[in-house]
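Suppose you are handed only these lines of text.
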Amino acid sequence: IERLRGRLSKSRSALGQGLLGLLGAGDLDEDSWEEIEDTLLVADLGASTTTEIVEKLREELSTRGVRTAAEARTALHDVLTQALWPEADRSVHALPHTVDGAKQPAVVLIAGVNGTGKTTTTGKLARVLVAQGRQVLLGAADTFRAAAADQLETWSQRVGAEVVRGKEGADPASVAFDSVKRGVDAGVDAVLVDTAGRLHTKTGLMDELGKVKRVVEKQAKVDEVLLVLDATTGQNGLAQARVFSEVVDVTGVVLTKLDGTAKGGIVFQVQRELGVPVKLVGLGEGPDDLAPFEPSAFVDALLD
Ligand code: GDP
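From them, the structure of the protein bound to guanosine-5'-diphosphate can be written out as follows.
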């Protein structure tokens, strides 16, 4: 929590301080409620979530008979946490399967538009899994961005995972296929596939990412499709999320660059729009800057 707090400092000033200032000021008239609403909107919570939170907060303040600033903070904390689905399953499913008596690796596809932090997230996630004692293989299927495979190879050396890469410009699906095949043959626990993130048109994406998934599924079950979104892009990131979720069944979101934005509130909107939980957050460029998303701790970091 301490680390999150430090990293989220910009989000805090935008949301937490504003709200607590307003709530702590004593009796709330309609103008104050409007200001609370504005604060939530400015922090990128989106219109529907904002309305819901304000209604719930009004209700909670009155049913709890809130008098003090500390009580108001607790009520606010609870309402915001509830809005983030504290009960959702946020584990990354990356355990191997047994199919017909043979071990089969878990397959995790990492999707997202280039520049969002896809490759970095793939590397960081590999590091987490390797640290848990799992054998991991990385698939460099982002064959369009010239440096992506090199970058992933650097990660593979850093974390101790094998990497499978194709020639530059190779078909992403063929590299994905080769990676998973290699993972099955080598008996690894998990294959993480860094996919190509070109989003020219929905059809193009459908062809590329849809094909990657179909081809991989010929060999092993796809356990996770993690969509990487850059928190600093706000509404734009949300629009990307919509397109991806129409093309593949996204199972979880990784929200990157939360360390560099005042727009932490995008978490609320992303979950609501996609109907899938944010599972991981990126809090920096370093190898250990990937953290599980914990609603209550996140809200604490926003408010304290
Ligand atoms: P890709 O094109 O989606 O694979 O993006 P990259 O993984 O190459 O990342 C793009 C840039 O964002 C790189 O400079 C990364 O170091 C940086 N980056 C990735 N995740 C984070 C994060 O959580 N926080 C910050 N501050 N930078 C990040």
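What can we learn from it? DSSP finds 13 helices and ten strands in the chain. The mean pLDDT is 90.
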